[in-house]
Amino acid sequence: MSHLPDQPDPWAFLQSHTSARIARGRTGHSLPTRALLDFQLDHARARDAVYSELERDTLLTQLQVIQQPVLQLHSRAADRQQYLQRPDLGRKLDEKSLSHLHHLTGVSGKSAQGFDLSIVLVDGLSATAINRHAGAVVSRLVEEIRALGWSLAPLCLVEQGRVAIGDEIAHALKAETVVVLIGERPGLTSPDSMGAYLTFGPQPGLTDESRNCISNIRPEGFPYEAAVQKLLYLLTEMKTRRLSGVLLKDEFDDNLLTP
User: Fold this and answer.
1) Between the CA of residue 193 and those of 40, 150, 213, 220, what are the distances in Å?
2) Contact call for residues 178 and 116 (beta carbons, < 8 A)
3) Within 13 Å, how many C-alpha atoms sit on residue 195's CB side?
4) Is 133 exposed, middle or buried (0-12, 13-18, 19+ CB in 10 A)?
5) Predicted structure pTM score
6) Across residues 224-248, what is the average pLDDT?
7) pLDDT tens sequence across 154-186
8) How far is residue 79 from each of residues 17, 53, 116, 125, 184, measured CA to CA in Å?
9) Contacts for 51 with CB less than 8 Å, ≥ 6 apart
10) Which of 54, 143, 168, 210 could form a disulfide with 245 if both were Cys (CB 3.0 to 4.6 A apart)?
C-alpha cells in the first residue's frame, strides 16, 4: 500500500488567529496523524475537566489574602454521577448548607440590612477552571468592590453546583446582587473556561433571562483584568438601574478595556 503524503491546508495561516480546530490538513480523506492525536488529547482533557474536583485547600490559601470569611457549601447532588444525571439537584443547596446560611445571617446582625454583593465560586462542569482562575479574579474584584465602599457577604465555595445555586445562596445571605464564578462546559480547546453570571435581586426560581454573563474567562480567552473591568461595569449598572438580565442593556465598550 502506497503512503499518501500529508497535504497542507491553504487556510493554515488562520491558525495564528484562533485556537479553533481549523485548517489541520489531510492525508487522503483523513486527518494527518498529528492532528488526530491532538484531537484525542484535547478530547481527553475535556472529559477529565468534567470529572475534576475543587482543590479546596489551594483555593482557601489563595483566598486568605482577601481577608474575607469563606463558607464551604454543597448542593443536593451527593456526588459527580448524580450531579451529571440530575441537573436540578445542582441548583439547590443541601439542607446542611442552607441551615448554616440561615444560622449565619441570624447571628451576624445582617438579617435586616443584608449585603451589597455576594460572590459564589462553583465547580460547575469544570472545577479545573475554578482551580486555575478564580483566585486571581476574586482577589482583584474584591479590591475594587471595597474601593467602592460596598459591603461584601462571606465568599462561598460550592461543590457539585450549577449557576442557579448562587441565587439561593445570595437570597439566604440577603445580598442585593450576586456574582457566580463557575466552570463552564469544557471545549476541545478550552477545558478550563470560567464563566461569570450576575444577577440583581437574586432569589430561588429565577431563570437565565434574569442574569448577565461573561464567558471564557482565562488568559487565552477573556483575560482576568478585562473580566474584572466588565464585572465592575455590570455591577455598577445593576446597582444604579436596579435590574439585570435582558432588561439591562450592555453598553460597555470593549475597546476601552485597559490591558
Assistant:
1) 19, 28, 13, 9
2) no
3) 19
4) buried
5) 0.87
6) 96
7) 999 999 999 999 999 999 999 999 999 999 999
8) 39, 11, 32, 13, 18
9) 80
10) 210
Among 3-17, 22-36, 100-114, 193-207, the least confident range? 3-17
Q: What angle do CA 115, 120, 124 make, to 5 degrees?
A: 160
User: Cα(first)–Cα(last) distance of the chain, in Å?
Assistant: 54
Assigned CATH topology for domain 50-256:
Rossmann fold (3.40.50)
Radius of gyration of the chain (CA): 21
pLDDT band at 25 (very low <50, low <70, confident <90, very high): confident
Tally the C-alpha atoms within 13 A of residue 81's C-alpha that lie toward its C-beta: 0
3-state SS assignment for residue 215: strand
Overall residue count recorded for the chain in this entry: 259
Other CB atoms closer than 10 Å to residue 182's CB: what's the count? 25
Domain chopping of the chain, boundaries: 50-256
Q: Are 114 and 176 in contact (CB under 8 A)?
A: yes
Alpha helices in the chain (DSSP H): 33-50, 56-63, 80-85, 95-108, 127-147, 165-172, 224-241
Q: Choose among 83, 99, 100, 81: nearest CA to 91.
A: 83
All cell numbers assigned to 234: 455590570
Q: How far apart are CA 231 and CA 219, in angstroms?
A: 16
Residue 146: exposed, middle, or buried by beta-carbon count in 10 A (0-12, 13-18, 19+)?
Answer: middle
CA distance 164 to 167: 5
- The pLDDT, as a whole number, for residue 37 is 84
